[in-house]
Design goal:
It is built from ten helices and twelve strands. The two termini are 29 Å apart. It is an alpha/beta fold and 308 residues long. Strand 4 (65-71), helix 4 and strand 5 (89-91) form a beta-alpha-beta unit. The protein has one domain: Class I glutamine amidotransferase (GATase) domain (Rossmann fold, 3-Layer(aba) Sandwich).
């Protein structure tokens, strides 16, 4: 089954060429089926790249997905054309006023992780969105800074600054092989990492509502579950394309910033060689498992979300 996207959204053509099943809203309206409604709060600077990454993953399941793009109401993107934002994104204030409900919500990362949460210009609105999600979204998935922000808001889980950027592909241990979110996962998983902050296991252990599902001996906890709230928080980037870390590395080198070659990414750690993607299968497993869990547990009538 396909993911429903506007035909003029760049992801429509990109994913179609990759073999991902996509469907226009007009055609979807003729289908006698209720699609899963998934919202993407996209806080990343490169909006289109991020849209493609997440649409690719959630559109690869056997279920029909209706993807909605959301932005912060008063925050203007400096890296994406205004007409793209106006055409495809709805401000959260509009979504909230309309009383919309969703089966799932993804909150992306943002390049502001070294700031205290309270100093982020849109923090107050983001907190309102987090609280709104408890009654209007069946399951949430916070990614990188988005996951850290959600864990801080709901559980007071602190983030800690690193002396050096954690950057590269790191081995992670599967700590919960019986988890439905890790169905099909290997015992050992390679995960792309790109961050200046970390969360720590001792802080997680002090919060019984949270369980660590994936962790690395080198870069710490990666994937947390908040079972009571049907939420996942991942601080790393399984959604990354093959060349995303390269783009970040090349950008920093060009800007003259101190940056090390991303660990375990290029063959023989040689930046002149083409990096190999060794995490794609687990990315599809994780997001496919999340979509499947939503499908198994979400109410048929979205008006019942928050009434259980």
């Amino acid at each position: 089954m396909p993911i429903t996207l506007p035909e003029d959204l760049p992801a429509f053509d990109i994913l179609s060429r990759e073999g991902v099943m996509v469907m226009s809203p007009g055609r979807a309206a003729t289908q006698d089926i209720r699609p899963l409604r998934i919202a993407l709060l996209n806080l990343m600077p490169k909006k289109i790249q991020t849209e493609n990454q997440f649409a690719r993953l959630i559109g690869a399941t056997p279920l029909q997905i209706d993807l909605s793009l959301i932005r912060m109401s008063d925050h203007e993107s400096k890296n994406t054309a205004a007409d793209h934002m106006a055409s495809f994104y709805r401000p959260f204030a509009e979504v909230q006023a309309a009383g919309d409900r969703f089966d799932g919500l993804i909150v992306t990362g943002a390049p502001i992780e070294q700031l205290p949460f309270e100093q982020v210009t849109y923090w107050d609105e983001l907190r309102r969105l987090f609280d709104w999600s408890r009654t209007h979204v069946h399951s949430t998935f916070g990614v990188c800074w988005g996951g850290m922000a959600m864990a801080w808001h709901f559980h007071g889980l602190p983030k800690h600054l690193l002396e050096e950027k954690a950057f590269g592909c790191f081995r992670h241990r599967n700590l919960a092989p019986a988890s439905p979110y890790l169905r099909g996962f290997s015992d050992d998983v390679l995960v792309p990492v790109s961050r200046w902050t970390e969360i720590r296991q001792e802080d997680i252990d002090a919060r019984p509502a949270l369980e660590t599902l994936l962790a690395s001996d080198e870069v710490g906890p990666c994937l947390l579950e908040d079972r009571a709230q049907r939420s996942l928080y991942i601080v790393n980037h399984l959604e990354y394309d093959s060349g995303t870390l390269k783009e970040e590395f090349d950008r920093d080198v060009a800007a003259g910033k101190p940056i090390r070659v991303p660990v375990n990414y290029y063959p023989d750690d040689d930046p002149s060689r083409t990096p190999m993607n060794r995490w794609r299968s687990h990315a599809h497993l994780l997001y496919g498992n999340w979509i499947n869990e939503i499908y198994q547990t979400t109410p048929f009538d979205l008006r019942d979300i928050g009434n259980a």
